[in-house]
Amino acid sequence: MSEDLGNFSMLELFRLEVDNQAAILNDGLLSLEQQTDQEKQLEALMRASHSIKGAARMVDIDAGVKLAHAMEDCFVAAQHGELDLQAHQIDLLLEGVDLLVAISKEEADSEQLTRITEKITHIDTFESSTPTVVVEPEPIAVEQPSCNDDTPTAEALPPADSEPAAKPEPAPTGGASSGTDESVRVSAESLNKLVGLAGEVQVESRWLHPFADALQQIKHRQAELIGLLDNLSGSLQNANSDEYSRTLASEIHTKANSCRHLLSDRLIELDEFDRRLHGLSNRLHSEVISSRMRPFSDATRAYPRLVRDVARQLGKRVELKIEGLNTQVDRDILERIDAPLNHLIRNALDHGIETPEQRLAAGKPEQATLTLTASHNAGMLSLQVQDDGCGIDLEALRKKIVARGMVTEAMAAELSEPELLEFLFLPGFSTREDVTELSGRGVGLDVVHSTVQQMRGVARATTEYGKGTCFHLQLPITLSIVRVLLVEICHEPYAIPLARIDRTMKLDTSRIESLENRQYFTIDNQHVGIVFASQVIGCNNTPEAGDELSVVVLGERLNRSGLVVDRFLGERSLVVHTLDPRLGKVQDISAASVLENGEPCLIVDVDDMLRSIDILIAGGRLDRIRDSEATAVHNGKRILVVDDSITVREVERNMLANRGYRVDVAVDGMDGWNAVRTNDYDLVISDIDMPRMNGFEFVRLIKQDERLYNMPVMIVSYKDREEDRQRGLEAGADYYLTKGSFHDETLIDAVVDLIGVAE
Hints:
- By secondary structure, the chain is of the alpha/beta class.
- The protein has five domains: about 1-130, Four Helix Bundle (Hemerythrin (Met), subunit A) (Up-down Bundle), CATH 1.20.120; about 205-290; about 295-475, 2-Layer Sandwich (Heat Shock Protein 90); about 480-620, CATH 2.40.50.180; about 640-755, 3-Layer(aba) Sandwich (Rossmann fold), CATH 3.40.50.
- Helices cover about 45% and strands about 20% of the residues.
């Protein structure tokens, strides 16, 4: 498998060479530590360091030449039996591998480089300078890919006593390969465009079928016409009409039959063409999608080294098993899952797996097993990180949740195992009491959850105390295609990603109850609020509520909402088309697609929609589903309160509502910006420090909008510094008030000054 590298600079070629050979060095050193086929491993290690030395010489990087040469001498000495590499010496050589990579990226520290090169040069006398825990080598059991072996063969490498005389050619970086396969580098943007075009071809190919159906209708009408001509000919014969009329009728009949046969022949050909084009477009689409796929093994190269280093640091013995290396994954997902998997592996090594002494005391083998598995399941990519460690003490977790004030003691007692484990994914939550280099800061699993959620996936955990824990990530196989539930809202199709749907159901209206002016129904002993999708989207076409409602339950964990849609249209696999960036963030929408009939379809942003639902609930603006009486018309001046603190929002909303103002709320600047563009307000009250869009940016956008710039804006913030006040006024705010100083009358007086009393 060769690569088209003609446009690469020598330094870029060197960087590719080092990346490739560094993977061989890492794998070889880890295998050497396990006493696995030492002769073969030493040969591969020597050749890899030799290749790097030659490549460094070509680009005139002397430091790289010296370091690679020192490493090469070590491996040659080991081959000749003059050196028996021990664990601390392998540590040093692994550090050398990291430095070679840093050299290729021009990030190496010169002092460290000199020190490590000197140590490796005299490795036979090198002793570990720091006391280390004596641990037997940790075996790394990796399922070998059947058709993706990137290790160069002896024939493909330069002789040991010669230097490379041509550009270094890196080994292939992934995918199935054979001796005759060739590849070229294609940018991700080009591949994305090809995916879009292939999807359009697939859509266009479907248009022939309805066209052929229309021609069939013409054929039927023609048959009816010929039947009428037959009746006319019979009537002319019986009426003893003149010879000319009978001849004319016969000629018309003959030509009509000729047209019928011609149309029939063309319809057969069109039908055959339709089938061929449909098959061709499907194959084209599949091939383009396949071109984005890479084996899971491309994402796992660093994990054996990671497990080895962290386990040694913690004084633990761990066997890493990697299964499903040939599982095909979209290259975008492959790049983005590295951080979540890294967190989960470190989490298992630090939290889950016990020390050898603890495992022996528990009746377990000294060596723990950590298994990373990738597979395709039900059209999704399934990733599992499973350990056979101590598991999670659910009762201790329950107490931790109560101690942090996240739920009451009574509520915690009723939480099931899945509900308890969901708290692990919350921001800032950690089960450790102390903070170490590896954990205790409560950010790891939150990063896992947020990253997986951005990829339209879900993360779950299961555990068995004393036996181990498993983290399961379910992701789409590709981000280019999304599996969705197609629903109809306001007579338009909308797509909701299946991965974010908790369930769908036909809900009997008798199950709907009301509490504090909010409507809900109960599933799994949990109250789920219910809202019309038409009201969330803002199409002002709320359907009549019959005996049954089509409901999509969105969200997960402790945040679920029931969305009432007009009807279900079924599941689809849609090609994702990103929205033009000039549109900005479209509220409640993440992307677009095209249906098989060519009709455009919007793909719902579930997280954004859940926030919109929260805003409707907080503002008390939900349409009633069971009430038949018309909603009362609200008069009075309308105010939007924008603050990311629910306490501040509710305090300000209640204060203003008690004075007769109509009050809506938004949870941050982005939600506020969406609200002011779709509704009419007499006043906006905004905080400064908010996620997604801060108050200064929000105010500036309002004042730059031709339609909104006359609307008064008040900033209410804890910041009482003069520079913050000045910055707010420069952004366009009409009033600046500090939360630390205002009381009821201060805020109300400011509102009255700006827009007058409520009417």
